[in-house]
Design a protein that fits this description.
The chain is α+β, with helices and mostly antiparallel strands. It has one domain: Arc Repressor Mutant, subunit A, CATH 1.10.10.10. The protein contains four helices and three strands. The chain has a three-stranded antiparallel sheet. α1 runs antiparallel to α4. The longest helix has 13 residues. The protein is globular.
Amino acid sequence: MAKLDRTFHALADPTRRAVLTRLTEGPGSVGDLARPFAMALPTFLAHLRVLEEGGLIRTEKRGRVRVCELAEGAF
């Protein structure tokens, strides 16, 4: 049940839902994903952490860039 709670928590915020919608188009760097939002990068990173803990996205470091994509089986 805890996994389901984390998933619903991740989906509860409109910023996180917008990130998921963007990721349906394909992977994106943290910088590209953050650009449309008027918030500090640490705040945006907290949103990504919630999405990752909810099992909805995965992140990977590629050189100096962190790339996010939808987790397999998330939708």
